[in-house]
Specification:
Layout lengths: L1 H37 L11 E8 L13 E6 L2 E5 L5 H8 L6 E5 L5 H4 L2 H9 L8 E5 L3 H23 L11 E5 L7 E6 L2 E7 L9 E7 L2 E5 L7 H6 L5 E7 L1 H13 L3 H9 L7 H11 L3 E8 L8 H4 L10 E4 L4 E6 L6 E4 L2
Parallel strand pairs: 3-4, 4-5, 5-6, 10-11, 11-12, 12-13
Antiparallel strand pairs: 1-2, 1-14, 2-3, 7-8, 8-9, 9-10, 14-15
Helix pairs in contact: 7-8
The structure holds zinc ion (2 copies).
The site of one zinc ion has 5 residues, from loops.
Length: about 350
């Protein structure tokens, strides 16, 4: 009996040490290994030359645990660009290995709040420790200057703390914030960037009452993508994105939103019912996004700006129901962390998950 008590006590001591001393030590060592492999490491250094697309925000204003506010980052060769800066976009880019500090230009599709509400955080990412000598360029429709001025003003006090704390090498006052470029697309499409084999073309889409609303096409050494921005079904998108490798198109499932609208009505939430009704007329269903992809002759379709929220993957087949009927290419319902790589001199399209 005495031996049994000693054995039981010994076992308890062993378990206690294992759980409270050894396990935390292993976790701590794992943490050190992980940060050594990632912190301060340029994870683009070994990438193949090509177009690399990072989904930093696949969602909409509706809260979705897998999808933050709209944000797509693009690496064309060594040059980095960001298209829209929704909530959490910049936070997602770090773990995905995207070089936010090197962003050459941020392009806005339109000035709805969900596309700009992460801009303050994004501009901190492009400023601090970036080595740039001038503010980041932010380009978008008429009105972009007012938005940039507002963000610069809102973050100016914070910038003085950063400079005081980290010094001018890390937080250079000369490169704080952003400068705006307003793009007037009344003439239709327009090449808005054309340098080092990279061509970015802005085109009009249909998101009334929002004027203007743009999509963008990015071409790099024979590989290409297009980003729809927010739009209802618009034949102009197929024309502007003709023949691209991958079309990134927004998507709203009308039937699922109608179910939400009916629920709001049943629960007496009149304002919410009206909003859920209104949003159906300026977005595109997955079926119509696939129709555009077919008309454009693209290989793959990646859906983003997903409405409604899809907290479970079991909802994805319902979300895309009917989209593959007419379109033979691959359809992906993206989430934060989806990475699409298009190496030059190749037809391959590689999908990864970076979060
Ligand atoms: Zn939106
Ligand atoms: Zn919008």
């Amino acid at each position: 009996m005495k031996k049994l008590v000693i054995f039981a006590f010994g076992l308890l001591v062993f378990l206690f040490i294992g759980r409270h001393v050894l396990a935390p030590k292993m976790v701590e060592r794992g943490f050190a290994r992980m940060v050594t492999a990632n912190v301060g490491v340029d994870r683009t250094a070994d990438l193949e030359d090509g177009l690399h697309v990072y989904m930093c925000g696949a969602g909409s204003p509706l809260a979705d645990p897998k999808r933050s506010g709209p944000c797509i980052a693009v690496l064309a060769g060594k040059k980095a660009f960001v298209f829209d800066a929704g909530t959490n976009g910049s936070q997602n880019l770090g773990p995905m290995g995207f070089p936010t500090g090197r962003v050459e230009e941020i392009f806005l599709t339109h000035l709805h709040s969900d596309h700009i509400d992460g801009l303050g955080q994004m501009l901190l990412g492009t400023w601090i420790n970036s080595g740039r000598t001038a503010p980041t360029k932010v380009s978008g429709p008429i009105g972009t200057a007012q938005i940039v001025e507002g963000f610069n003003m809102a973050y100016q006090i914070d910038s003085t703390y950063r400079t005081a704390h980290h010094g001018t090498k890390v937080a250079n006052p000369a490169s704080f914030g952003a400068t705006a470029r307003e793009i007037d697309l009344s003439s239709g499409t327009q090449v808005v960037y054309d340098k080092d084999d990279i061509r970015i073309t802005a085109f009009n889409v249909s998101h009334a009452p929002v004027h203007a609303a743009f999509g963008y096409r990015i071409d790099y050494k024979g590989r290409s993508i297009a980003i729809s921005g927010d739009t209802k079904y618009d034949p102009n998108i197929a024309i502007a994105s003709k023949g691209v490798d991958v079309l990134f198109h927004e998507a709203l499932n009308m039937e699922m939103v109608k179910t939400m609208q009916a629920a709001a009505k049943a629960n007496g939430a009149k304002g919410l019912e009206k909003i859920l009704f209104d949003i159906q007329d300026y977005h595109t269903s997955p079926v119509d996004a696939a129709k555009t992809a077919k008309q454009a002759g693209v290989n793959d379709l990646v859906l983003y700006h997903i409405v409604p929220m899809l907290p479970s993957d079991a909802l994805i087949p319902i979300f895309v129901r009917g989209a593959s009927d007419d379109f033979d290419g691959k359809i992906t319902v993206s989430e934060d962390g989806t990475i699409v790589r298009l190496p030059v001199d190749s037809d391959t399209i590689i999908y990864e998950h970076g979060l």
